[in-house]
Amino acid sequence: MKCLAPAVFAFVTSLLLATPPACAIELSIVSGDTGNGIKVLREILDRYEKKSGNKVDIVVIPPSTTDQFGQYRLWLAAGSSDIDVYQTDVIWAPQLASQLVDLTEATRDVVGAHFPSIIQSQTVNGRLVALPIFTDAPALYYREDLLDKYHAKVPTTWKELQDTAKLVLDKERAAGNRDLWGYVFQGNAYEGLTCNALEWVMSNGGGGIIEPDGRISIDNPKATAALDRVKGWIGTIAPPGVLAYQEEEARGVWQTGNAVFMRNWPYAYALGNSENSPIKGKFDVAPLPAGDGGHPVATLGGWNLAVSKYSKHPNAAIDLVKFIASPEMQKYRTLKTSNLPTIAALYDDPDIARQQPIVPRWKPIFLNAQPRPSATARIKYNEASSQFWTAVHNTISGNGTAADNLAELEARLTRLKGKGW
Ligand code: GLC
């Protein structure tokens, strides 16, 4: 059968509910998104299928970016054509670049609508290896009702957060609220802990682990003090289980109403305010607190779509990527998920401002967010980050002191760096 033009095909199928003709291309996209991300991706893909006549399957994998990276590496190392499109974390571009299609030419007509810094982060040796679909910068989620009840103000330093969490917790527990905790965050040993710990360390004046000039800076007293403080939270204001929490576990405790404060990404905003959420209308967001004499730091996150070099349908895959990253679909995603768009104009969109007010408020926060040292450590980033989160996890679990663990970490990173990053 001869292929019909996509629009004609969509029209004909909608009339006849016919099965796709043999020439319809079948694509697969892999994603391990949090919250309702997969559901919303499916809705976007349904629209794409209608428009293009192609079919797209989602290969769903666990939400841990660390696990995803490991799996992506396996598929790519095997030259697998099973996956056409990878949903990639902002930090992975340098490490995956050689196995991804260069999108520079094909996206020339659309890249100008995205924030240049995000496009830059996905450009490796002059090749654009992924097109952004949303950006990320964390928030301090707080229970407005509980702070009001105890006349407490929104903390602007970690010390204030600690004190306020304890105050509310003590009073609420005494009143019989047994399941409440003060602060939940991502304490599991994975990339999410690197994000949290970079914020603790850098906001305390302890540097950025590896500095933009390549220098390793982590073994210093301000970094040590930052981790010592966090260690004191475990089992006091934070549940012992926080040492195993990723984003969704933290949100689980928070959204059932069992935390005064939470560190999480903007996706938790829409979910917290969803119809059956026990905390709907009871919370707000603020920038993360600052350390002693420091300034607040938000780690820059975000997600992109990349086309595998081994895809049998690279052109259709590029078309799909452009569709998902388009202003219309980013707006759709943002309205449903409160993910931050990567298209500047959407920050002035009245529907977004009304339905997801966190989005325009978070524009300056993500524009000033701190990138992880992935552009510096490049192909060694995953190893460097894993050394970092291991040292942090050991410290906050009481396995060695902060001072010893950071001294050892600095030695390990120095060895890893070798003659250079
Ligand atoms: C979020 C961020 C991503 C980060 C991850 C860590 O998904 O967008 O950049 O690596 O959290 O858990």
Your description of this structure?
With 421 residues, the protein is an alpha/beta fold. It folds into two domains: 26-137 and 301-367, D-Maltodextrin-Binding Protein, domain 2 (3-Layer(aba) Sandwich), CATH 3.40.190; 139-299 and 377-417, D-Maltodextrin-Binding Protein, domain 2 (3-Layer(aba) Sandwich), CATH 3.40.190. Helix content is 44%, strand content 13%. It has 18 helices and eleven strands. The longest helix is centred in the middle third of the chain and has 17 residues, at 158-174. It is globular, with a radius of gyration of 22 Å. Residues 65, 89-91, 136, 191-192, 195, 247, 265, 301-303 line the site of alpha-D-glucopyranose. Alpha-D-glucopyranose (GLC) binds next to helix 8 and strand 11. Its main location: periplasm. Keywords: Periplasm, Signal, Transport. It holds the Pfam family SBP_bac_1.
What does the secondary structure layout of this molecule look like, with pairings?
Blueprint: H1 6-16, E1 26-31, H2 37-52, E2 55-60, H3 65-77, E3 85-89, H4 93-96, H5 116-121, E4 123-124, E5 127-128, E6 131-136, E7 139-143, H6 144-149, H7 158-174, E8 181-184, H8 191-203, H9 221-231, H10 247-255, E9 259-264, H11 267-272, E10 283-286, E11 301-307, H12 314-324, H13 327-337, H14 350-355, H15 358-367, H16 374-377, H17 381-396, H18 402-417
Parallel strand pairs: 1-2, 1-3, 8-9
Antiparallel strand pairs: 3-11, 4-5, 6-11, 7-9, 7-10
This protein binds alpha-D-glucopyranose (GLC).
